[in-house]
Design goal:
Helix content is 67%, strand content 2%. It is built from 17 helices and four strands.
Length: 489
């Protein structure tokens, strides 16, 4: 479906070179794959899979994984081609700027705040529950008033006070990871790599020791009959679950955010994007088979579905504690990469004039966008202190799906406007793959709106806030079109 052009020039367009002099190019293919895996494997597999199976699709959640995975594969191929043409941080924000102009660049960049900044806050809140549970297992009880969000509810209309003060562990996690990100990209990559190895090892242990205990009767009926409402089992349940499961795949495009710190971005970014996506898809499918095969899917709508399911198998009780440790490390690495991605998106948007220049300032010693990283950490810490994961997860998915749709559409625009431009990585059958990715991502987004109307309301409010910022500040400071892809072979 794709190919590398070994003869393509490695010189970067002049505007990119000029903007890129200050960040440290320290990341190779392995580090980029680790960044992708670090952001992908987290709350999706450790939390959301159980909910999607119990509430929407039953064992057919495996089909939901396939639908979401195919949509991400097609979008990932488009990301890879874009990254080989425009090896610039900012991911889909930068790609939209290059193909669709200033307004669409802002629209996509603003929604990427959902994908990275808001996601970091929500996952940090989910991490807190696992962390407090681990403390309890070793005999330490963290005060509930300081370990939960002060508000809760599944929608804006249902928000209510919980009586808690703030989620202190979530705030501590965000602050600690922000410090690592300020110190330097190489140190951050090494730390992330260690976390990825730990959680991937735990996932492999669950697959290896859990597969022998899979019982096929737990996978029947494979597609439970629809119970009336849209998304409550049946075919509509599979589609609704795919929108939820999509959250489990969010992260592979974070590799493209690291373009300005990659050693050889035109070659290494596609490897990092597709490598992390492929590895995680295989692990997800195998992990889901184990999860559904060792326990009744109707019982899996719990905070810790993986350790809950494994705890039902007496010979595997020893795995429960490692799974919880893996979940803590896994969720922490997702927060880590999300904070990294958000700070780099802010860096690009500020450099292009959409945000104040402070966000693009680079530390003289650490060579990282320190002000933007600190501001990102503070905002994420505030959200993590006040809101739980379930309020934010669906909105994060919608924001990411919008970015994917823009990338799939943008790659087609470039095939028309710059057909002879240098593409180190080129998609074969692009007029089949890109429209298919656009269609699947649109289908998942619509299914989220239908199954959860509040998600559309939140997106409208979020977009309204973004438009105010754009017309008050961004439209007066950003150039109408900064990037231009050369139509030369």
């Amino acid at each position: 479906m794709a190919e590398f052009d070994e003869a393509a020039e490695l010189e970067l367009p002049d505007p990119i070179v000029a903007s890129e002099a200050h960040l440290h190019r320290a990341l190779g293919p392995f580090s980029l794959i680790m960044i992708g895996i670090g952001c992908i494997i987290g709350s999706g597999i450790f939390v959301i899979t159980g909910h999607a199976a119990a509430e929407h699709a039953g064992p057919a959640v495996l089909v939901s994984f396939v639908i979401a995975g195919i949509g991400c594969l097609f979008a990932g191929l488009c990301y890879a081609e874009f990254a080989s043409m425009i090896p610039e941080s900012g991911s889909s924000y930068t790609y939209a700027y290059a193909t669709m102009g200033r307004f669409m660049a802002w629209f996509i960049g603003w929604n990427m705040v959902l994908e990275y900044g808001v996601s970091a806050a929500g996952v940090a809140a989910g991490w807190s529950g696992y962390f407090v549970s681990l403390l309890h297992d070793i005999g330490l009880d963290f005060p509930a008033a300081f370990a939960n969000a002060p508000v809760a509810g599944t929608g804006l209309h249902a928000l209510h006070a919980t009586g808690a003060f703030m989620n202190v562990p979530a705030v501590a996690l965000v602050v600690g990871l922000t410090v690592f990100l300020v110190i330097g990209v190489r140190e951050s990559a090494n730390f992330n790599g260690l976390m990825v190895l730990i959680k991937t090892g735990i996932v492999l242990l669950v697959i290896l020791f859990g597969l022998p205990f899979v019982h096929l009767q737990n996978l029947t009926p494979f597609i439970p009959p629809n119970e009336g409402p849209w998304g409550k089992f049946g075919i509509s349940g599979i589609l609704a679950a795919s929108g939820n499961i999509f959250f489990a795949y969010i992260g592979f495009e974070a590799v493209s955010v690291a373009a300005q710190e990659a050693k050889n971005p035109r070659r290494d970014l596609p490897i990092g994007i597709l490598g992390s996506l492929g590895i995680c898809t295989v692990l997800y499918i195998l992990m889901t088979i184990v999860l559904l095969g060792v326990a009744d899917w109707r019982t899996l709508d719990v905070e810790n579905p993986v350790s809950f399911a494994v705890s039902k198998i007496a010979p595997l009780h020893w795995l429960v504690a490692p799974i919880d440790v893996g979940a803590v490390v896994g969720l922490a690495s997702v927060v880590f990469v999300s904070l990294y991605g958000q700070s780099r998106v802010f860096y690009c948007m500020a450099r292009d004039g959409f945000l104040p220049r402070m966000f693009s300032a680079v530390h003289k010693q650490f060579r990282t966008p320190h002000y933007g990283t600190i501001i990102t950490g503070v905002l994420a810490a505030v959200l993590a202190a006040a809101f739980p994961l379930d309020i934010l997860a669906e909105l994060v998915s919608v924001g990411t799906l919008l970015a994917f749709i823009a990338v799939c559409g943008g790659i087609l625009i470039l095939r028309v406007t710059a057909p002879r431009a240098t593409r180190r990585f080129r998609i074969r059958y692009v007029w089949l793959i890109a429209p298919a990715g656009l269609l699947i991502c649109t289908l998942m987004m619509v299914s989220l709106f239908v199954s959860s109307p509040d998600t559309l309301s939140r997106l409208i409010v979020w977009t309204g806030v973004g438009l105010v910022i754009y017309f008050v500040y961004g439209v007066w400071h950003a150039a109408p079109s900064k990037w231009k892809v050369s139509n030369e072979s």
